[in-house]
């Protein structure tokens, strides 16, 4: 039950001006909110009205890493194929926990859902997509960095209509050896086939990480989707 769900801790970079928009960004496997917090601080210099929330994943055994416990949003058995058996139960549990953060922003902090951007990197990208595509809230945008589509065979049957037209920023390095570039291509093709508004950005010679150019492009996306003055 949702009432017994453990609340996530988060690293938060508060808005430095009047708070009118929020970015919730989900880290990848083995990381924590602290790993992406410096990006929030840098973006915050240009987006003083935006609060950045970086949730921390709980520790759990990860099959891909020989059962070692580490921060993870769900178990990963293999990354050998985009259709690899995915931990649906783990994904859905983490989705509920992320939704708690979203509801808190909307209901307690009075930030409309259409002033919230949800997203993440790698495993966090997967969680951002799962949350963004299935939520009843209409978000301002979805950010998908170096990840892949969750529950590839059924996600479109789970998707709500709320974010059919929500812009999706997808960034992926073409030298990614962890989440292969073609996984990103296949995921974007599925989104486009189902009429989602996805913008695919390829970063040449970038491995499994981010780059200054990607962050600049992300800043442009955030300026477009959650500008200082809310769109009329």
From TrEMBL:
<dbReference type="InterPro" id="IPR003140">
    <property type="entry name" value="PLipase/COase/thioEstase"/>
</dbReference>
<comment type="similarity">
    <text>Belongs to the AB hydrolase superfamily. AB hydrolase 2 family.</text>
</comment>
<protein>
    <recommendedName>
        <fullName>Acyl-protein thioesterase 1</fullName>
        <ecNumber>3.1.2.22</ecNumber>
    </recommendedName>
</protein>
<dbReference type="Pfam" id="PF02230">
    <property type="entry name" value="Abhydrolase_2"/>
</dbReference>
<feature type="domain" description="Phospholipase/carboxylesterase/thioesterase">
    <location>
        <begin position="10"/>
        <end position="225"/>
    </location>
</feature>
<keyword id="KW-0378">Hydrolase</keyword>
<dbReference type="InterPro" id="IPR050565">
    <property type="entry name" value="LYPA1-2/EST-like"/>
</dbReference>
<dbReference type="InterPro" id="IPR029058">
    <property type="entry name" value="AB_hydrolase_fold"/>
</dbReference>
<comment type="function">
    <text>Hydrolyzes fatty acids from S-acylated cysteine residues in proteins with a strong preference for palmitoylated G-alpha proteins over other acyl substrates. Mediates the deacylation of G-alpha proteins such as GPA1 in vivo, but has weak or no activity toward palmitoylated Ras proteins. Has weak lysophospholipase activity in vitro; however such activity may not exist in vivo.</text>
</comment>
């Amino acid at each position: 039950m949702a009432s017994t769900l453990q609340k996530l801790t988060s690293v938060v970079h508060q808005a430095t001006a009047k708070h009118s928009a929020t970015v919730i960004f989900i880290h990848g496997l083995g990381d924590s909110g602290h790993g992406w917090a410096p990006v929030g601080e840098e973006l915050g210099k240009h987006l003083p009205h935006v609060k950045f929330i970086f949730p921390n994943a709980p520790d759990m055994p990860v099959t891909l890493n020989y059962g070692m416990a580490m921060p993870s949003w769900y178990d990963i058995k293999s990354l050998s194929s985009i259709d690899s058996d995915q931990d649906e139960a783990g994904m859905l549990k983490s989705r509920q926990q992320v939704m708690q953060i979203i509801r808190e922003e909307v209901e307690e902090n009075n930030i409309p859902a259409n002033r919230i951007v949800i997203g993440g990197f790698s495993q966090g990208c997967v969680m951002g997509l799962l949350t963004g595509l299935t939520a009843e809230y209409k978000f301002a945008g979805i950010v998908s960095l170096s990840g892949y589509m969750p529950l590839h065979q059924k996600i479109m049957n789970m998707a709500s209509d709320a974010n059919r037209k929500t812009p999706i920023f997808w960034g992926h390095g073409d030298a990614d050896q962890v989440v292969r570039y073609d996984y990103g291509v296949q995921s974007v093709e599925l989104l486009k086939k189902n009429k989602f508004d996805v913008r695919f950005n390829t970063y040449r010679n970038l491995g499994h990480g981010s780059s200054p150019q990607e962050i600049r492009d992300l800043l442009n996306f955030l300026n477009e989707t959650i500008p200082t003055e809310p769109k009329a």
